[in-house]
Prior knowledge:
Elements: H1 5-27, H2 39-65, H3 70-90, H4 110-134, H5 137-144, H6 147-158, H7 165-181, H8 190-214, H9 223-245, H10 248-254, H11 257-281, H12 286-308, H13 314-352
Helix pairs in contact: 1-13, 2-11, 2-12, 3-9, 3-11, 4-8, 4-9, 5-7, 5-8, 6-7, 6-8, 6-12, 7-12, 7-13, 9-11, 12-13
Amino acid sequence: MAVSDDENLQLIDKKKVVSSVDGKMSKAGRTTDSGLKNVRALLFLFLWYFFSGCTLFMNKYILSYRDGDATLLGSMQMVLTLVCGYIQMWHPCGMGPKASMSLSSKPAGFAKHMVIIGGMRFTTVLLGLVALNFVAVSFTETVKSSAPAFTVVISRIILGSKTGLYVKLSLIPVMGGLALCSANELSYNLPGFTAALLTNISECCQNVYSKMLLSDETYNYTAAELQFYTSLASLVVTIPTCGLLMDWDKVMATTDSTMFMCLVLNGIFFHYQTISAYVLMDYISPVTHSVANTGKRAFLIWTSVILFGNEVTFLSGLGTIIVIFGVLLYNKALNVDGEKKRALGVKLEVAKV
């Protein structure tokens, strides 16, 4: 059947529109959820999970088996992220391009951004330590299970990104499943709950703000750059805090060559945990990152069961299944909402044509 020239032109225009819409989605790929289809994104997701498990093991070993000081542990993590971040700016090791060391090449407001993220990093670490002094780890993890919901709100405020209805609904089993996983030995008091909640909000703000910088089209922020400069900013506040909170008698009594090597190894693990999270953030949205973080926490709970022989309960098993189901549901919801946005975009562009 013959097709008229006018119809051919309309078909060509529509193809251009679809290509344009897809191009916008692709260009914004750093701020959408299509990144997890990328092999490198999956690699850094694995590295993030792996080094998080290593950090968890070393934290438990240093604090419980070596009777280490929590403030010293947190401070050494900041020092090692500073040192390793500086090295990786020269030698990225496949985690992004080599960063420029010249401060004159940095964009306006660079120092302000680094101080803001550095302050949030320090706040997250400090409040996490305060929470652990008042409540059990399981209670802190239960509070943190609300992270995806906070991220949706904070992403809307800072990035202006909108989350579809199906994606919002899919967050319910993800958050509820983690809450069940960590529902054992719950201990509640107001200072502990407040510190855990503020830790959660601070971490979500840090992730969304970091995503905003990584998605900046005027300057190519690298993961190593964020790691080094934010660690430098947070260290400025960490040093006086160490003097106030650290138990120096305990530190002097427990720190030997073995403890020092454990602290250094823990700091290196923590560096790769955080920098792999930064690299991953360049591929996915803050909400997807938060969902992946929720899955990571469920993974770490089961890792602690295997490594430390913690008791496995019915609620832990049920919660894990719900988290896995919720993540699968979330991925499906992303596809559904993504198709709706794409179809709407095509209709709007066609209408303009």
